[in-house]
Design goal:
This protein is about 65% helix and about 15% strand. The chain has 6 helices and 4 strands. Strands 1, 2, 3 and 4 form a 4-stranded antiparallel beta sheet that branches. It is elongated, with a radius of gyration of 40 Å.
């Protein structure tokens, strides 16, 4: 007797491979998109470092301001002592003594307020560094004379056009969009080649009653095809593919205009920053002379007050003028250093390339 099917086993395997010129450009687009992400990450890092460096100088200035105010408080204490002596010796009325005491006591809340502001600045500084808000810092002060850096505006503008993080990121985005547009155009305007292969094995188990045995018969089926095709939808502007290319063209145009505007805005920014730094450099000498004159005026006024030849109000005004002059000079110096940090970011050079030259 013939065998009857008892068992059936079948399978199916298929493989397909498609090649097009759009595939190559698509790989390039992915690489460009990855590079854009790296630039965005680097720009975020640079912005954080820029802010931390500027906050560092802000804290140093706050510490200097507190030191000046504490010195003024010590002077006020000394003036109260002199007023008491003059009052006992009949060289000054009681009103002068009271004025000295009030002036001294008025400095206490001002110092407390400045110290509170410093604590808040330190907490913000710690937060930007990823530390606990109550972390204590011992910042290294700026020592020595401030060296002013020679700046070439045209050279800085040229470097900013190629090195400013925002410009680099936007330029990379334009390259990525252009590559994506090219990949999409190649996908729709050029033919593609596709290879398909299929294999379907089948096994039948038969029972042969003549010898009581199982017999297996295999039946294989394999297919192979080559397809050369082309998508014509993008040739028509009203289709989804055609509209997609138009949208990409508009996006690229908008990004390119934004890039040109950013480059132009960077030129103005660099010019304004350099002018500001040069103005600070010119003001530095005048401010230093003002501090020297204010110190001398205060010493002479205090000596006259000790001798009973000047009123307390004159001493108070001289001390205030001296404190303001010293704070103005320090503010000018720290603003100059922070301006150099902004300039370093704008031209895309490592931080310290300019600002370290100003603190040697």
């Amino acid at each position: 007797m013939g065998g009857q099917p008892q068992w059936t086993f079948s399978g199916n395997a298929a493989a397909s491979w498609t090649f097009s010129f759009a595939l190559i450009e698509g790989i390039r687009s992915i690489k460009l998109d990855y590079q854009t992400g790296l630039l965005t990450y680097a720009m975020a890092q640079a912005k954080i470092e820029q802010q931390i460096r500027k906050d560092y100088y802000t804290i140093l200035l706050a510490q200097e301001n507190i030191a000046i105010q504490r010195e003024s408080f010590a002077n006020a204490e000394r003036q109260v002592t002199m007023a008491q002596a003059n009052y006992r010796n009949g060289l000054a009325p009681q009103l002068t003594l009271l004025q000295a005491q009030v002036s001294r006591d008025n400095l206490k809340p001002t110092i407390d307020q400045a110290e509170t502001g410093l604590k808040l600045a330190m907490a913000s500084f710690a937060m930007n560094l990823g530390l606990e808000l109550d972390t204590q810092f011992e910042l290294v002060p700026v020592t020595g004379d401030l060296n002013y850096v020679s700046l070439d505006v045209q050279n800085l503008i040229s470097r900013a056009a190629n090195g400013k993080p925002e410009i680099m990121e936007l330029r990379q985005q334009v390259l990525t969009l252009t590559s994506q547009r090219k990949a999409q155009a190649l996908q729709t305007h050029t033919p593609y080649l596709r290879l398909d292969f299929g294999y379907s094995p089948a096994f039948l188990g038969l029972w042969d009653s003549m010898d009581d045995t199982d017999k297996w018969n295999g039946h294989d089926n394999a297919t192979f095809s080559i397809t050369l095709g082309m998508n014509l939808n993008s040739l028509f502007p009203f289709t989804k593919q055609g509209q997609g290319l138009k949208d990409l063209d508009n996006t690229i145009k908008t990004a390119s205009i934004g890039l040109a505007q950013m480059v132009q805005g960077s030129e103005i920014e660099i010019y304004q920053t350099v002018l500001g730094l040069q103005r600070m450099q010119i003001s530095a000498e005048t401010l230093a002379q003002t501090v020297a004159l204010a110190d001398r005026s205060y010493r002479l006024t205090e000596e006259a007050y000790r001798a009973g030849l000047q009123e307390f109000l004159s001493v108070q005004n001289a001390d205030l003028a001296r404190s303001q002059a010293r704070l103005a000079m320090l503010s000018n110096q720290f603003d100059y250093l922070k301006g150099l940090i902004d300039l370093e970011y704008s031209i895309g050079v490592p931080f310290g390339a300019l600002s370290n030259g100003g603190t040697k």
